[in-house]
Each structure stands twice: as C-alpha cells, then as structure tokens.
Amino acid sequence: MDDLDTSRLDLERIPHHVGVIMDGNGRWAGDRGLERTAGHAAGEAALYDCALGALEIGLEWLTVFTFSTENWSRSAEEVQFLMLFNEDLLGRRRDDLHERGVRMFFAGDLDDPRIPQSNKDRMREAMELTSANRRLNLVFAFNYGGRSELVRAAREIAGLSATGEIIPEEVDADLMQAHLAVPDMPDADLIIRTSGEQRISNFLLWQSAYAEYVFPEILWPDFRQQDLVDCIAEYQSRKRRFGRA
Ligand code: IPE
Ligand code: IPE
Ligand code: MG
Description:
alpha/beta, 41% helix, binds 3-methylbut-3-enyl trihydrogen diphosphate
C-alpha cells in the first residue's frame, strides 16, 4: 500500500462516486485451468485492495457490482457459490472495514426468497454495525439490477399517488431519487468495467446518466488499487460537459 503512486492524481478533484463492474473472474480462472468459482474467490483480494485504495485517496462512494439480477441464470453451482461467498466475505472483512470507518450498504432486492436467510442476516448486520461510519460508503450491488431498482421506485410512487399522498405533477427527478435503493447515493462520476467488455449490463442506470466510462483490459482478480488510481487519473483528464456548449 505504501507504494501507491498518486502523482498523476489531482487529490482536490477526486470523484465523489465511482462504480465498478468487476468483470472477468470466469476468464481469469479459465486461463489457469481452474473452475470459474476460483476466479470469484480470487476477486476478493482485488475488492479489498481497492477499498483500501479508496480510503487512502479519500473517495467517498464506491459501488461494486457483486451479483446482478441476471446472474441467477448461471449454473446452480456457480449461483450457490456466489451466495455463500458473499456471506463468507462479510464474515472475513466486516470488522476490519468497520474499524477503518467504512459504511456498508447493500443495494438490490434483498427480500428475494432465493437468497439464503443467513446471507440476508449477515448483510443486515453489516449495514447496522457500520451505519454511523462516514469515511467511505461502500455499496455492494447484490441481486441488483438498474431496471428493477427503477421499477420498484415507480411502484412506490404509484402507491403514494393511489392513496392521494401525492399528485402526479409532484413526480420529479428528486422524488425518483428518494425512492432509489440508496437515496443519498450521489450520481456516479466514473464507471469502471474491467475485462475489456464495454457495456453497462443493467448497472446504476439512473445514477450513471452523466458518468464517464473507463474500460481497463484487466481481468478483475488482477485489478489493484493502483489500477483504480490510474482509472481515476484517466477520468480527471476527461472534459465533462453536462450538455453545455
Ligand atoms: C464477474 O465475472 C463476476 C460476476 C458476474 C459475479 P464473471 O463471472 O462474469 O467472469 P467472466 O465474464 O465470465 O470472465
Ligand atoms: C455484470 O457482469 C455483473 C457483475 C459484474 C456482477 P456479467 O458478466 O454478468 O455481465 P454480462 O452478462 O457479460 O453482460
Ligand atoms: Mg462477465
């Protein structure tokens, strides 16, 4: 960690919120003649290292895509591994991240009956334990899909309208935001997708409206905090325009 090179970074202009699509675990394992699940296991070190890097440079929000609503279509073995892995990871890292001042969130459909109850309990405990922390907001997008997040918000707002608590004219972007999975999550400034794939795969659809994208050709298990810093340096070299001329 001491050799993290931040010389290319403008520490005054660290993005508020970075989202990461941690992709390439299966290919990493395949390259080594291993089962796909070995790639997921190896990805934990990358995630932990990036969280430490985020703390070091003062990033406020880091959202990582750990399981998509579409990932249920993988083999039963892989899905089961990912469910247990999420739970184990919390057991191993929760207290350490808590001591470092990390506030942990889980964005996604946590009520899904396919998620083991023990996993749901671990996620809830981690959120409660770390709720007062303020150094880094680490959001696990778990059983997360951008469309499902927006559908849920629309459903809640429709409910408020049906009971007369609001009138349709009151529905605006702020009200939508208030009904998202993590209402105080700021817009994503930068979205990183590893492994060379260049697509959003239903991640942070609302929050990424004006995000910059970086697609490093690194498989997720090989990604380290220095790569995160390099992606942020690339982000800082971009000119964001927000529709202005
Ligand atoms: C990303 O790696 C991790 C999850 C989707 C859980 P993949 O498992 O998608 O790895 P590739 O894309 O098959 O290499
Ligand atoms: C997105 O990666 C989901 C996660 C990283 C958890 P996928 O590997 O599932 O996405 P596609 O299927 O290649 O679009
Ligand atoms: Mg993939």
